[in-house]
Amino acid sequence: MSLLRVENLRTYFDTRAGVMKAVDGVDLEVREGRTLGIVGESGSGKSVTALSIMRLIEKPGRILPDSHIFFEGNDLAAIPERELESLRGNRISMVFQEPMTSLNPVYTVGDQIIEAIRLHRRVSVQQARDRAVELLRLVGIPSPERRVDAFPHQMSGGMRQRVMIAMALACEPKLLIADEPTTALDVTIQAQILELLRQLRDELSMAVVLITHDLGVVAEMCDDVAVMYAGQVVERGPVESIFSDPQHPYTEALLRSIPLLGMTKAEPLTVIPGMVPSALHWPTGCRFVARCKNALDRCHREPPPLARSGSGYAACWLRESIPEGSQHGAAHR
Amino acid sequence: MADPSTVMEGLATAGLGTEPAVPLPNTDAARSRLRWNVPLVVGLAIVILSTFLAFAAPWLSAHDPLEIADASLSAPSSLYLLGTDQLGRDVLARILYATRTSLSVACLSAALAFVSGTLIGLVAGYASGLVDAFMMRLLDILQAFPALLLAIALVAALGPNLPNLVLTMGVLFTPRFARVARASTLSVRERDYVVAAIGLGVSPIRIMFRHVLPNIAAPLIIEASLTATLAILTEASLSFLGLGVQPPEPTWGGMIAQSTAVMSIAPWLAISPGLAVVFVVVGFNLVGDGLRDAMDPRS
Amino acid sequence: MLQYAARRIALLIPVLIGVSMVSFTIIHLIPGDIVAVLAGPMVASDSEIAQNIRQSLHLDQPLPVQYGLWLMGVLHGDFGNSLTMGLPVGPQIAQHLPVTLALTFMSLTFAVAIGLPSGVIAATTSGRWPDTVIRLFALLGLSTPAFFLGVAAVLLLSLYLPSFKTHATVELHADLFGGLKALLLPAFVLSLAAAATVTRYTRASMLEVLREPYMATARAKGAGRVRVLVRHGLRNALLPVVTAVGVTAAQLIAGAVVVEQVFGLPGVGQLMLNAIYHRDYTQVQATVLVVTTLVVLINIAVDLSYYLLDPRIQRHG
Asked: In a mutagenesis test of the A interface, which of C221, C239, C310 is the best target, namely the one with the most A β-carbons within 10 Å?
């Protein structure tokens, strides 16, 4: 059963230079208790997608009216702000990229976790504090009774990210969105944090949306994966099939650009030539066309729809299963 | 419509960190830099206009500022555009001549503070160590005084006249420049071209003036325009208290002080010189703000 | 905390010594023969009055000794005698200080009460009309001398609200409440420039804070907009604003001297200006010293409150 279903999400930013279509027609699905990885280069719109799901987009950004974010029977794109506030941090939580600056420097970590609890639960400060200590222990912070009174600046980056996770889990959410939770950390700490996330996900049986640019992390953590390029999902499906049989040339190129376990020297790493087009002027046809070796005439003219391909979905005219002319411009609704 | 840099702020607000979520076209950044800096343009216009009025006062005013006419306390009319005061002197002419006094005090004292403060700051920042510590403590002491209070006492002791006003304010405003110059010198000193010059055996004085000074000019110029506003306000306050340039020379503060006695029958006497102060100070403030905006890469 | 406070206060001692030296010097800046200036041109230099002046200022001693004697007196609460009235100047200052302090603190309160919300509103509406309007007012506030505002206020009130007493007598010791009420208008007039300063600082600081990721974290926790703005935003933005308040306090005390003159208030400003008009320089000297010392102490208080507000300093001491 799907917990979160995003349909035709479009998030635009109004700038002096024009409308920046950061997210331009994204479809996603997260099933209960499962982990979806969203991968893509910086600028592909993956972080904006995450923030849009939480509806944390500030002016001059806006989510277009025909976008839908179905979560537990509500359309988050449409419900009033007040109702959304009762869901945020409660049913859906988020962990950000920068543990160094994501915690408020003037409050103790305990105060910040207590706030997260008391925003959604009618409990006394003492009860909330006990719960905060328990949460800190859960995320593996040593001597949590003492650390609960520490200020963020007294902790290392890895510890702070653990605190962020504890705060996100305060109300046992059904869905945790983690936006590059390990990018800012040392390699050894990265592994620890990922391991912690995996363990907590299984213990608390929550669904996770993990945003990353690291396919290695996806391989380790995720059940499903969505590959984003230029504000759109170009391919999605189960992790194994995408790794073994990528359907979109961009996914293929991504896989070739990173070293994976079991790779032989015969397969050299390659860099994807060219640049991501500007969000102010997306190309008319397929957005990957300028960087695609096998681009057809049609790829320049018509945007490919996200259609069934392999054991998932892909948006590419090179997959012959899509008859010419059908679902014209479907991905560009 | 916002420009892309605000969008990036918006994204950062939303927790995206420093990396722009979507690549931004470079041409737009360049365009926004060339955009008209409204505060700067308006400010400069006001400053230039008031400087012109001050210089041209003798030709612009139909009456002598000290000439005593028959009609005392006459309301603004076509003959006396802003009316006359108790002694029948033309208010417009007096305001124009007062602009001369005010601007000379402001510019001269700001210039004095600029030169002495920059020298002190350069030396302190460049020499560092004990010299620096000693000079900074001296500035601490000077800055511990509420500026206007010390100005009142010093001008009262020295005697209220134009050179003493300039001297007093010049000294009082010196720490402002010294601090700016020192901070900038400290950062410029670490740059490669200065380190290279030291390595080549260039004399410290030459390094300070040829390499450091041009690179710390921008913040000093901003400080100068803001100091000018303080100087004008201080001069006005002092002359209001009777400690400015002495009568019969007209000063804005003095004119307002005189007007209080006859305020209920001749309100224009207080209002026009007051508005003149506000006008000129707004001008200098806008120049300072505009320069700061133009030089701050974040805005 | 105590250690931090002790260190800050220890750093003050050289500053206060310097302040006393400058204050002492004021009297010696008088050009020409000090005695002739102080006593007036009519008094012969060997007359009794002239002798008295020489003696009370220890003018027959070398300068460092004069300073030493004066400082010893000051430390014992003896600021010297008035040159015109012969009375000790210390009690005079004590008598006039409460009005000035009340005026300063009232206007500081106004400045914060006006400046803080304005700054927050300006920052959150950055680039739109409320921001523009507030910035325009802040610019005018910074550019208008307090005495002109005072004169204009008195003028307008006398024209349109003649029943309003703009020049009420203020006797704080006799009628505290009535006295404070009479100070409302002067305090408001005095506060506007400071309010503009506080607005600008708050706006700038709030704009920085609004970009901080922890603001998004707070939203993601489910906190409402106002709660995020006040509890997470303002609490952090306050830190630089506190510094502004310290700077402002010094400006306000000096501004009070002028505003007292506009409204005829019996504060130290009036005392000092009267002393100036009567060439009573020991009074001027003592007033400058006392007021400046107060300002230095206010700044220490600001410094310590900064320490209490920002947990990050506590660690580094």
From this structure: C221
